[in-house]
Design brief:
mainly beta; single chain
């Protein structure tokens, strides 16, 4: 009966083996295409197309009532002024609402917009302004009555932007920058200020950042002033055009959310700019939440930890989703102690089983798949690939052997990284994780889609012959 102990060990192994029959839901990173952001104390406000929400912790969100989605093209915008929160809802076709909350988003009161109609409101203390053509109106009683100011801008000088800086009010028009020192009653044009040069170019948005004010000129670039009277055009050292969504001063840095260069920052008042790596896709709005920089972007709400250089996801999911981006998960993987997730919004990692997610960069259309290769992990997509050497926390671009690659697949064996691609007729290897590549001769058979290493051999699929092939 020498075989009895063996049977007992085998039986105990079966009994003690996990059955994996009980499953529970693991939170996944969520997002939404966000276009507005405001912070009032410990409450964050953000809005998507036709939807608005608030959060008291930057992670869980509740939709704001008295506000109904009508059309995916509807716009919602938050503003915080004098401790009050304002929400402007502009239907693509039809109604427009201006709501005010004096208890930080718990209850909301409607403000009568009055005639004439407007597409923009501006706030200073308890006073609300609105513009129509070259005229400016104000209310000091939450819209019960509106008064047209005696002052009028020149004909054709529509109000483009309105900001408060150094206790003065500033307005940009096609003809330049105007300033008011009496709470908006009278205005004077600042000589030599940025203007659209007679072509009525949209833009001229203002961004006060502490001791400096910036103005974005869509055609010429970024202007800067330290006193509001003297303006200089800054050189653009990162992109062909700025196309700025927002700017924010935080801890001595000036951050700019741009549509051409991503999120950038300057430590010398805009003379030089540095790009932040692995940032959320299309950051639109910037603010400060809980002492940290936060953003509303195409991928959702994120809080930036400057010391760790990580973006913590606010996990917001506001229906309806933008028609391009969804929360669909394309692949998951484990790397060290991290759970990695790839969806349409980007790459994420979590070190606490999905309770908190950190953004690791956009993966490109379709999200792609995660592939372990040696001491690294690759996120392979349709036309690009990124690689991480620290369990999915930081990512860098992986250079492919050919720019025509589409949906490449990778494996790692004997100190070599191998790649195949169904649009390439050659088989490649790299001894240094993609820094250099060399062609591997394969004879009449061509590994073209999918590659795996098992039992000392490489296995792939020859697309031209529709057969599984292996290396000798």
């Amino acid at each position: 009966m020498k075989f009895l102990p063996t049977l007992i060990i085998a039986f105990c192994t079966v009994i003690n083996s996990p059955l994996y029959s009980q499953w529970t839901e693991v939170p996944m990173p969520e997002g939404a295409s966000l276009w507005s952001l405001a912070i009032n104390g410990d409450v964050a406000y953000t809005a998507s197309q036709g939807i608005a929400a608030r959060s008291t912790d930057g992670k869980s969100w509740t939709q704001i009532p008295n506000f109904n989605f009508l059309d995916p093209n509807d716009a919602a915008e938050f503003t915080v002024e004098n401790g009050n929160v304002y929400l402007y809802y502009h239907a693509f076709i039809g109604e427009r609402y201006l709501l005010k909350s004096e208890d930080n988003g718990i209850s909301w009161d409607s403000i009568q917009a009055g005639d004439p109609p407007t597409s923009k409101f501006y706030f200073h203390g308890d006073r609300i302004f609105k513009g129509n053509d070259n005229k400016l109106y104000k209310t000091d009683n939450d819209g019960q009555t509106w008064e047209q100011l005696a002052f009028q801008f020149p004909l054709g000088q529509f109000i483009l932007d309105f900001k408060v800086w150094n206790n003065k009010l500033y307005i940009t028009t096609y003809g330049g920058v105007w300033v008011s020192e009496d709470a908006g009653i009278n205005w004077s044009l600042i000589a030599g200020s940025p203007a659209s040069n007679g072509n009525n170019l949209a833009g001229l948005h203002m961004y006060p950042c502490g001791s400096v004010m910036f103005i974005e000129h869509y055609e010429l670039g970024l202007y800067r002033s330290f006193d509001g009277n003297n303006w200089e055009l800054l050189p653009n050292n990162l992109a062909d055009n700025w196309s700025i969504g927002d700017m924010q001063l935080h801890q001595g840095r000036i951050y700019a959310a741009t549509f051409s260069a991503g999120l950038i920052y300057s430590e010398d008042f805009g003379d030089n700019w540095t790009m932040i790596e692995s940032q959320p896709n299309e950051t639109h709005c910037l603010d400060i939440y809980d002492g940290k920089l936060c953003t509303a972007s195409y991928a959702g709400f994120f809080i930036f930890d400057a010391a760790a250089q990580t973006w913590q996801s606010g996990n917001i999911n506001l229906p309806p989703q933008n028609f391009i981006y969804t929360n669909y998960v394309y692949d998951i993987a484990s790397a060290g102690q991290n759970l990695l997730v790839v969806n349409d919004l980007g790459r994420y990692h979590s070190d606490d089983n999905g309770l908190n997610y950190y953004f690791g960069g956009w993966s490109g259309w379709g999200g792609g798949k995660l592939i372990h290769v040696g001491n690294a992990i690759i996120n392979s997509n349709y036309f690009t690939a990124n690689i991480s050497f620290d369990d999915g926390v930081n990512w860098q671009s992986l250079t492919l052997p050919d720019s025509s690659f589409s949906q490449p697949d990778f494996t790692y064996a004997n100190g070599m990284l191998f790649v195949v691609d169904n649009f390439d007729s050659q088989f490649w290897k790299s001894p240094d994780y993609g820094q250099t590549w060399a062609v591997v001769p394969t004879g009449n058979l061509v590994p073209s889609t999918d590659i795996e290493y098992a039992e000392g051999k490489l296995f792939s699929f020859d697309y031209s012959t529709s057969k599984v092939i292996s290396s000798s």
